[in-house]
Amino acid sequence: MFSDVLADRGGAIEVVPQVIGKDPDGLRTAGRILRDSGFTRLDLNCGCPWKFVAKKGRGSGLPEDPVAFERMLEAGCEAMPGGFSIKIRLGRTSPDTLLKRVPIINGFPLAMVTVHPRTGEQMYSGGVDLKAFAEVLDALVAPVVFNGDVVDAAGAVAIVRRFPKIRGLMLGRGLCARPWLAEDIRRALAQGGGPEAAPESAPPPQPAAEHGKRAAAFARELAAEYAAELCGPAPLMGRLKELWGYLHCAFEGDGTAGLREIQRARNLDSMLSAIERLIAGA
Prior knowledge:
Residues 195-201 have low confidence and may be disordered. The chain has helices spanning 24-36, 51-54, 66-79, 97-105, 130-139, 153-162, 173-177, 181-193, 208-229, 233-247, 256-264, 268-280, and strands at residues 18-19, 42-46, 84-91, 112-119, 144-147, 168-170. It has a six-stranded parallel β-sheet. It is of the alpha/beta class.
């Protein structure tokens, strides 16, 4: 577990470990180990929508129990003083759960609250609830980060303009599908799309034809890292199948035909061949 988040794994990029659970003592232990490893930040996932997680009171199921939720926030702030944050949804089943938990959240010195304005039951379907997000944003004391459906620069700029109080954007599925998305957003903000805090400079525009090449290089490097760490072909195939479920979007025709071939592969060699065919056809 902890070998996956060694302090030097991110290079120049700060790594913020994220944990999930409902055991305060376990959170304190994790925080102590991470502090001893050089970390100054720790995030608690209070938003995971998967049923097998939420129904056990973890992820999006944790805020459903206000007592358990408060104990975890207390433990987290003790575990990582000044650097504890949470990622949370509007609720597991009801979109007003988070708003009801704001008094609890505001009682702790959180470094950040990342809000995904959907319920856990929604998973990733339906649109994000921007009205509910606005209410939560106004009510929270801690810095708020927006998460959910940020898949292009135009969408990111629209969120920043509508909610100038946010401290940032968390990119998830959009970044997995388009590894250059953060650069596109920085460029759009630098060109006047965002607030005064927008970066003074941004990387130059990149031709669309280069996106596939960069995605291919990234995928090959990541596959080599996976192969060096994982035991056997089965876990490697699982990781690659998940990766290409997003990354195929970077290729011509949305890469859907190539993705089907990757998903149907019965062994690692055939999967790697399918990946190379998708890349070569870009």
